[in-house]
Amino acid sequence: MNTQILEYLREVVKDELNSGKISAFIGYRKVDGISGKRRPFVCRTAEDADKLVYDSFCTQNLVRMIEGKSNFIKSLKQPKKKIGILVKGCDSKSIKVSVSESKLDRHGFWVLGVNCSGNLDVSRMRDSLHIDSKEIIDDGKSIQLELLDGSKMKLEREDWLLPKCIHCSITKPDNFDLLIPDDDPRESKDEMNMDWVSEYKDKPFHVRQDFILKHLSRCVMCFACRDACPGCHCNENCVMDRQKLPEPFIHKSHELKDILQYHFIHFYHLSDRCTGCGECTRACPENIPLNIITDQLRLMQKENWEFAAGISEKATSPLSLIKGEEVLGG
Amino acid sequence: MKITHDKLNELLLTISDNARVFVPQKIDGTTNFHLIAENAKIDLDTVRTKTPPKEIIFPQTEKILTTRSTAGKILEIKEAPEIENTVIFGVRPCDAKGFMLLDNFFMDTKRKDGGEQKHIDPQWKKHREKTLVFSVACTKPLSTCSCTSLGIHPADEKGSDLLFIPDIGGYTVMQVSEKGKKFLADNKSFFTDDGNPAAAQAEANKKCESMITLKVPTENAGKLMDLYKKTDVWEEVSMGCITCGVCTLLCPTCHCFETREIKTKPDESEKIKCWDSCSFCTYSLEASGHNPRPTTADRFKNRILDKFEYHVTLYGEIACTGCGRCTDLCPAGISLADTLASLGGVL
Amino acid sequence: MTDMSKPEIVEILEIINETESIKSFKLKLKNDLNYNPGQFCIVGVPGVGESAISIGSSPTQKGFIKLTIASVGAVTEKIHEHLVGDNLTFRGPFGNGFPVDKLKGKNISFMAGGVGLPAISNIMQYTFDNRNDFKRMELLYGARTPGDLVFKPELDEWKSVKDFDIKLTVDNGDKNWTHDVGVVPQFYDKEFANKSSLLFKDDPGFTNTAVIASGPPIMIKFTLIALDKIGFPKENIFVSLEARMNCGFGKCGRCNVGHHYVCQDGPVFSAAQVDEMPVF
User: Which is nearest to C262 in space by CA: C249, C275, C278?
Assistant: First the structure.
């Protein structure tokens, strides 16, 4: 944990709360008794700010919390005050998408940017090494674990980043109101490194089909990928939740064909909103690599139309643009 | 009784000729229960499968009826085919206890509150009768494990037909139920007569329990109704909840389902039963548009109270096994231990 | 123990248009159903779904059961498209029903709002068919508009029942409307204030009178408040609650109110029980 960043974060949040500029601040806090786990946390008083943490386990994209999915956040709003929010590089793209779609009033929020050195994939660590720890310390170079049986272990940091963080192209947020200073920020990689997607994309159809069906057969239809997604704006009007639909438009029988149907509705609805924040893949309790499809869709738009969601608040998605020559009979 | 690893593999493959045999297997990096096959590797290094073995007795989706009908006339209603004999090997003691808690709900006709439970769940009963549960004691916990807080032990035999306690080269086997006893008698040739199951169990419990660090505060179960109307308390504990179905669908004691009618052919439809979750906004939404639990906090409250209040009132037991899935897998990082501690703090 | 998840095939004998969006269906079952007034059943259309509906007829009426169904969802819309002679699937009876034995020898005030009337018409018909077992009775029935009142022929028919008063109210009347105007809670307050309700006539101490109420949740809430104001004993108020249901026998989970499953422990609860529930 970078103590310099943490101290700055707590102090600045206290100042803003005390000065009355913000009515609440959304950040992260620790979860008692469980290592490597953080949860979203709303500070309303300066005392609350002392519970704030920021480190490489703060994975949740907090933008999802301010998009009107949560009535609770709406209730925090006070007249003439903003709501503060902590935003990492990849999360800042989600703000732009929401603003560009008029789902978020940027002026209602005070965005505190923070540099990100990549989030750790604790669940992968546990599943592949069969270990679990009392304590995980990440010093920015390596990870030191104290295992449940008391033994110690050291891991290479770069090996255990979340998939989305390995080729991160936006370690520094933009579109913030204030950026927490950082002496030693992690460098961004090239814009959209998609080698792994290109490799998959060139495989024969049946290989790709087998791959995705095998993984999706684990889906339990918990909708965590939808509910964690900052780009999903339909909330309780989601097509999967509608009671009245002309049969056989949506089947919810949990058979593989229905699972496939749901995921592809999600993928296509998100195709020009997906910023690659990786929340769907991280939220999935069954480790389904959903980003294999979302990344392909992003790559296709990049290659065909030079478009990427979350780069500009003003850009219109090519999928919602109709040119004169495209109009039938026009 | 004892059995070596090789003999166990041979046994499971042999019985798979006449029964569905499920074992935990790591496929594509994720460990879940799958049907055993010739070269299948049983993965017991992974402490906890992502999906609990509940999925075998209470499948995620199950066909219960087929109906033939044409233009308003119903011609025939056919029941689903019989359920095959099933063996689940590698169930953890917490998940085995989960079966017992679900038995309360699905099959028990006695209730503690004096009310009457008139019906049993026919599908659950059919599955349960045809299934043998072979548990394997835990040798190490995860950081989110807290079975001991719920009165369950890492080598507990409750809810199993046979308990397998790992030792060098194989397992010491404890016979638990009559069904288990019969199975041992029918397959004697695979086992040897040595070993002391009670001693092995005690030792396994001691070794594993010393590593369990997380405590779920259960002392307030049965008192939480006092908080029912304190909306702010529930908003606070459910903060960040995205109302997905992870904590409920993957819980070994959650039992909600929905039956749905699916048209399969122009004149044929199926009635299927599939998992549902009280976290979903549509779960109790009435056709009139009225929703008794419209907010995130309402639905979160229902989940916690169902496990730590309602089940206690109805059956005298907490409907939680401390398996830790809800805490481990929650995308929002919400921990059950944390939630109960916070609720206890404001009681 | 029978398998409650398996339906039987029933035939539609008669369809009565009650209002623009409400129809009553008389159904023919293989055998006469043995049930308590106040129990409900689950009817369905293959390939579309099932819906929980209270049985509107009384077990004293033989040869058919009557269900009154409002077209509000996918399933009920589909049921409305059915014609006489068509089939539906039927499961039931479910739930507890009204405590008939407790009600015997009492005065009864029936209070219904909108589509709530069919949920208590079963017990009403039962008391009419066993008229001598009960004392004075009345019906206070309210709906949004005169067009939303269901059971118009029955309301006429019931006028001839001995010692039975009918009082109607609508939120918005029209030029032909001769009864009260005003929302149900106001109506009760007025009835109670001028003590015109039967509750005050024969049994001013409320020692031998029962109230049976049914309607939308909001109406139930205000009914209970109005009755509480006049000090009516809670053990003698019985309400029929609504909830989204799916299995019908207490297993699928969605209709729970506290630790009660409405489909199994209800739909009929006494106000004393409702008081202990974490609703309203």
Answer: C249
Answer positive or negative: Cα dihedral of A127, A128, A129, A130. positive
The token duo for B197 is 């199951």
Mean pLDDT of C179-201: 76
Q: Is C144 on the interface with B (CB under 8 A)?
A: no
Q: Taking the mean position of all CA atoms in its chain, how far away is CA B228?
A: 27
Residues of C with CB under 8 A from a CB of A: 47-48, 73-74, 77
Local confidence band at C248 (pLDDT 50, 70, 90 cut-offs): confident
Which chain C residues are Cβ-neighbours of A243 within 8 angstroms? 73-74
Lowest average pLDDT, out of A314-323, B76-85, C4-13, C140-149, goes to A314-323
Q: Which of B118, B123, B258 lies nearest to residue C264, judging by beta carbons? A: B118
* Contact (CB, 8 A) for B220 and B226: no
Stretches where chain A sits below pLDDT 70 are 1, 68-72, 190-192, 243-251, 329-330
How far apart CA B217 and CA A209 sit, in angstroms, is 46
Instruction: Answer yes or no: do B118 and C250 touch at CB < 8 A.
Output: yes
User: Is residue C133 within 8 Å of C105, Cβ to Cβ?
Assistant: yes
pLDDT tens, B27-78? Answer: 998 999 999 998 889 999 999 999 999 999 999 999 999 999 988 899 999 9
Q: Do the chains contact at A247 and C73, CB–CB below 8 Å?
A: no
- CB contacts of C249 in chain B (<8 Å) are 118-119, 121
**Could A244 and C47 be called an inter-chain contact, meaning their C-beta atoms sit closer than 8 Å?**
no
- For residue C1, what pLDDT is reported? 46
Note whether C147 contacts B: Cβ–Cβ < 8 A: no
Exposure letters B130-153 (e unless 16+ CB within 10 A, then b): bbbbbbbbbbbbbbbbbbbbbebb
Return the minimum-mean-pLDDT range out of A261-270, B108-117, C57-66, C218-227. Answer: B108-117
pLDDT at A180: 92
Measure C224 CA to nearest chain B CA, in Å: 18
Residue A324 or residue C275, greater confidence? C275
Lookup: tokens for A167: 């080729």
Distance from CA of B156 to the nearest CA of A (A): 21
Helices A205-216 and A291-305, packing angle to 10 deg: 140
Which residues, listed in sequence order, are joined to residue C69 by a DSSP beta bridge?
Answer: C23
Q: Quick one: closest CA in A to C73, which residue?
A: A244
pTM, whole model, 2 decimals?
0.92
Helices (H), B115-262: 122-129, 178-186, 197-209, 231-237, 246-249
The helix or strand, by DSSP H or E, that contains position C113, with its residue range, turns out to be strand C107-113
- Provide the 8-state DSSP code for B42: P
Dihedral sign from CA coordinates of C126, C131, C133, C134: positive
**Model ipTM?**
0.90
| C167/C141 Cα distance (integer angstroms) | 6
**How does the average pLDDT of chain B come out, rounded?**
92
Cβ–Cβ below 8 Å for C46 and B261? yes
Per-residue confidence (pLDDT) for residue C242, from 0 to 100 = 81
Put simply, whether A245 touches C (Cβ < 8 Å) is yes
Chain C residue numbers with beta carbons less than 8 Å from the beta carbon of A245 are: 74
Across all residues in chain C, what is the average pLDDT?
A: 88
Which whole-number Å values give the CA distances from B139 to A130, B113, B144, B216, B334, in the listed order?
12, 38, 15, 20, 26
CA A13 to chain CA centroid, Å, is: 23
B258 to chain C, closest Cα gap in Å? 6
C-alpha closest to that of B108 among C250, A25, A16, A263: C250
Contact B258 C47 (CB under 8 A): no
Contact at CB, A243 and C48, closer than 8 angstroms? no
Q: Which chains touch A (3 or more CB pairs under 8 A)?
A: B, C
Q: What are phi and psi of A5, to 5 degrees?
A: -65, -45
